[in-house]
Task: inverse folding
């Protein structure tokens, strides 16, 4: 089965990042005490105290909810996430008492994004936790990305333009920025541009961006430091060599 895919959810806002009734303990599993959820790390509590989005652990047979701090506790904190986003996030939970013959199911909100382990990494982590359970940071248990994705952000509707609004805005800008004598030509250029096919409208030559005006200089070498050639481009290596010569008093400055 492929690894689950969830969008990046650092603010616990996405409804598609809710995992419902995932089987985390089967009836014949009587030896383990620490259990890793498949789409972790997960939020322990709901955002803004909303009860519907908190972590919930239940008996599957009776739908009775287990009590945090009495029946189970969270473990394997994701410290880097907690430091940045100031929310409690964990990778696993530990049972504080035995539940023989019980199937337990968990519902939770995942942080999603690139931090959900692939199948191989998840299987390795479960085996490591089962053989040597310990209270460690999620970062130290398994390799996770070292950087967080960009935070989701809203694009206000009033800052978004459709094609007709953009066209009207361009026309208004031309009218405001040009005198009356030049407005007709500028508006005609806009109309001609819009009538062209996309490859034609957005094509550019080297002359359009001023490439012919840029000198075609060869990269410099350390040997150039002894001469006076004005048609070379100084490279970083040559700059460092010149600095060493200045330090040693061997730079030729005349």
Result:
């Amino acid at each position: 089965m492929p690894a689950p895919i969830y969008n990046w959810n650092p603010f616990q806002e996405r409804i598609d990042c809710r995992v419902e009734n995932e089987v985390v303990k089967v009836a014949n599993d009587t030896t383990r005490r620490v259990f890793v959820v498949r789409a972790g790390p997960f939020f322990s509590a709901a955002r803004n105290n909303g009860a519907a989005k908190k972590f919930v652990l239940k008996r599957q047979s009776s739908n009775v909810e287990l009590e945090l701090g009495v029946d189970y506790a969270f473990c394997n904190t994701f410290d880097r996430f907690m430091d940045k986003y100031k929310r409690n996030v964990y990778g696993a939970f530990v049972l504080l008492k035995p539940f023989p013959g019980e199937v337990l199911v968990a519902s939770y909100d995942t942080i999603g994004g690139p931090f959900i382990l692939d199948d191989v990494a998840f299987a390795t982590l479960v085996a490591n936790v089962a053989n040597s359970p310990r209270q460690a940071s999620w970062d130290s248990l398994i390799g996770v990305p070292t950087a967080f994705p960009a935070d989701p952000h809203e694009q206000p509707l009033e800052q978004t333009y459709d094609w007709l609004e953009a066209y009207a805005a361009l026309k208004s800008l031309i009218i405001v920025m040009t005198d009356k004598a030049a407005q007709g030509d500028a508006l005609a250029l806009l109309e001609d541009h819009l009538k062209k096919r996309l490859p034609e409208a957005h094509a550019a030559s080297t002359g359009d961006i001023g490439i012919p005006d840029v000198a075609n200089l060869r990269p410099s070498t350390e040997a150039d430091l002894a001469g006076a050639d004005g048609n070379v481009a100084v490279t970083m290596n040559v700059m460092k060599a010149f600095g060493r010569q200045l330090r040693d008093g061997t730079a030729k400055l005349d």
Remarks:
- Residues 218-248 form one domain.
